[in-house]
Amino acid sequence: MSNLTPLRTIAAGVLDVAYFETGPADGPPVFLMHGFPYDVHAYAEVAPLLAKAGCRVIVPYLRGYGPTRFRDEATMRSGEQAALGADLLALMDALAIPRAVLAGYDWGGRACCVVAALWPDRCAGLVSYNNYNIFDHSKALVPDTPENEQKLWYQYYFHSERGREGLARDRRALTKLLWRTWSPTWKFDDATFERSAAAFDNPDFVDVVIHSYRHRFNLVPGDPAYADIDLRLAAQPAIAVPTITFDGTDDGVRPPSPASVHAHRFTGPREHHIVPGAGHNLPQENPALFAGAVLKLVRGR
């Protein structure tokens, strides 16, 4: 089992971002963005595959994870999608990368979708697990089916102070439960989980996570610094860049949907694949498939 080390750190927007980089410095750049509750090691096998193919691969820790830190104590510990997208854009700017293939899932996929939708000139191609991943706040209070509502129990738990305390006190047990229920056929071992769970000891992890799931349901305000981005996202902007989307048949939190469900959100070339046996953490469960999708976009095929 390999670790993504050594890490580098760069000042990017409101963060000092810790990230792993591999591959030739002059290769086509690719950003790999992890989700909740995961970390950069979701790409422990994807990153070397891409580097071997000649890509410059950047794998950052999101705000609130691992060694990434806020640069100012006064900055709101927001987990809203506008902030995640702004963080990715700021990292691209800090690294002087004008355009890249963006790939991710869960929170990281959302960040990629935000940049692809609002700054398409910065995105050479998009790989997004769970399709169009920009949350529609106008539908936050529209109930889903009872079966799907049950899968979101952790979000409703985080709406309460009991949930905040539960995450703070039992973050490893809680997140390990999510790993198991979201990827029921993925047979990860304790060492694999602990390698990622260390990232949840970040001092801002709880605040960022709780804000994310409360803001998603319009229960708390967002960071005013991202109000303009949030307003643009409220229009559910279409994604025009070349895109490959995935769903997994065994995803325990986001059930798969046919390509037609999100077709109107993609105005450029798009492929959609439903992956048999895949859970929520696709890049770690099926790294060859995920890396192959990235390379297809890198090579323009």
Automatic annotation (TrEMBL):
Residues 28-285 form the AB hydrolase-1 domain. It comes from Ramlibacter humi. Keywords: Hydrolase. GO terms for biological process: acylglycerol catabolic process. It comes from the Bacteria. The keyword Lipoprotein does not apply. GO terms for molecular function: monoacylglycerol lipase activity. GO terms for cellular component: membrane. This is Alpha/beta hydrolase.
